[in-house]
C-alpha cells in the first residue's frame, strides 16, 4: 500500500505558458518542477507479488486572448519502477461531442466536455467490476506531454545488500593482501636458496684471488 506525508500536496496547477510554433505543432515549454515522496508498506511479508506503482494523472487546458477556456487533453503515466533519469512522452486525448454545432461552440464560445473523475483516464477509482466498457464514449487525439523524471529509491533490502557486498569486498581485500605478502616471502626464499647454491658452486681459486686483490 502506497502512502505519502500528510503535509504533502498531491495535486497542483502549473503556470500559464505561451505556445511556440515548431513546424506544424504548437509547443509550450512549462518547465514546471515538482517533488513527490511516496512510501510503500507491504502488509503481508509472504506476498511475492510486485507492487503497483503510483500513477500521475494530468489535464491540459488552454486559455486564449478572449479568455475562452477549453480542455485540450487528458493523460496519465505510471511512475518508473527503476531509479535514474527518465524522459517519457505521454499522448493525450479529450472527449468530444457529435455534430458540428458542438465544435462551433467550442471554437467561438469556449468550453468543452470534461471528465468528472480524472481517474477515468485509466480505470476509475469507483470501478468494482471485472470488465470496464467505454462503448459510446467518443474521444479525439490531441497531442502529447513530455515529462522528465528523476527517481530515487531507498529500501531496507538495498541497505542489507549493500552491507553484504561491502563485507565481501573487505574480506576479499584482506585475503588479497595476505596472498601478496606470502608471494613476496616465497620469492625472497627462492632468491636466498639460489644465492646459497651459487656460493656453494663458486670456484675456490677465484675466491682466493679476489680476496688478495
TrEMBL record:
Q: What's a single GO CC term here?
A: MKS complex
BP-aspect Gene Ontology terms: cilium assembly
Entry's transmembrane regions: none
Q: Is this entry keyworded Cytoplasm?
A: yes
* Top-rank taxon, per record: Eukaryota
Q: Which UniProt keywords apply?
A: Cell projection, Cilium biogenesis/degradation, Cytoplasm, Cytoskeleton
Q: Where in the cell is it found?
A: Cytoplasm, Cytoskeleton, Cilium basal body
> Quick one: where is this thing mainly located?
cytoplasm
In terms of PROSITE patterns, this protein maps to: C2_B9
Q: What is this protein called?
A: MKS1 protein
- Supply the source organism for this entry: Zapornia atra
